[in-house]
Every structure is written in C-alpha cells, then in structure tokens.
Amino acid sequence: MADRQRLDVPRSRTRSVTSFLRLNPDAVGQFAEGIARFLGTGRFLAVQTIIVIVWITLNVAAVRLRWDPYPFILLNLAFSTQAAYAAPLILLAQNRQADRDRVQAEEDRARAASMRADTEYLARELASLRVAVGELATRDFIRGELTRILDGDEDGEKREKKSKKKRDAVS
C-alpha cells in the first residue's frame, strides 16, 4: 500500500532539462543589449584588430608557435562562432528597443490626444467667454440709461433701442 501513489498529494517536481533552461527574459535582454553596445564600439574593433594581427603574425613568423598555419582555419572558426552569437544577441537587443519605442509611441499618442482634448476644451471656454462679454452692458449703454433716469426722459425706450442697434452693429 505504501508503494502506491497517493492521488490527494501533488507529485514532486523533478528537474528536467527545460526547467534548467528557464531564464529571466529581462536579464537575458539586458545582457544582449550590453553585448550589442560593446560590439558596436571602436574599442571592440581595435581590440579585435590587434588580436587578429597578433594571431596572424605569430602563426606566420614564429615557426615554433604555429598552432594555426596559413589558411588560419582556427581563426575563421573563432570568427564564425563570434558571428553566430553576435547576430542573435544584436537582434534581441533590437527587438527590445523596438518594444520600448512602441510603448513610447503609444504614450506620445495618448499625451497628444489629451493635449488635443484640453485645447478643444479651452477653445470652447474662450468662445463662451467671448459670447458672455458680448452680452455685457457697455459703458455708453450704462451712461445713457443713467442719463435717461436722471432726466426723466420718456423717450428713453427709443434711445435704448437705438443704442442696442448700434451695439449689435458693432458686434
């Protein structure tokens, strides 16, 4: 009975090859970006050029140290290996940069839409203020009304209509 597997207890996880290869995508991406940045520098090109010159010089001039004779097959193998790793790392770094650019573009679009909405709101408010200011009594209108009241003028209504026509014509 002890040899039988219990169904009420989860199985223990066994380590497999795939669980060993689980890597943090951000850490891999940061590593790839660091390598891509280094591969694109003048320092890398200078160091690689010096290594190649020393390699070829030692294999041509130093007879006892020849580990890679003239066709330099080992050097070609090293360059091929470097290229095989460099290309995917550079592509990974470019993909991460494209993702960052996409997020930045979306934020820029959202910010532009918000600014457009704010601008439209302010334009509507400004238009309503202009309308409200146009409906305010002017100094001349108030002066005329006060004069009419003080003079007891019965023709004040006629004068009011004329001043209103003038205001409407000016607006």
SSE layout and pairing:
Layout: H1 17-20, H2 25-39, H3 42-61, H4 73-134, H5 139-151, H6 156-170
Regions with little confidence, pLDDT below 50 for 5+ residues? none
The secondary-structure class comes to mainly alpha
Strand content: under 5%
Enumerate how many helices there are, as a single number: 6
* End-to-end CA span: 101 Å
Radius of gyration: 42 Å
Secondary-structure element pattern, one letter each = HHHHHH
Biggest sheet layout: none
Mean residue pLDDT: 84
The share of residues in helices is over 70%
Tell me, what's the shape? Answer: elongated
Number of strands: 0
Keywords: Membrane, Transmembrane, Transmembrane helix
Pfam families: DUF1003
Transmembrane segments: 44-67, 73-93
Protein name: DUF1003 domain-containing protein
Please give a structural write-up.
The protein is an all-alpha fold and 171 residues long. The protein has a domain at 24-115. It is built from 6 helices and no strands. The chain has helices spanning 17-20, 25-39, 42-61, 73-134, 139-151, 156-170. Helix 2 (25-39) packs across helix 4 (73-134) and helix 5 (139-151) packs antiparallel against helix 6. The radius of gyration is 42 Å and the shape is elongated. The model has no long low-confidence stretch (mean pLDDT 84). This is DUF1003 domain-containing protein. Pfam families: DUF1003.
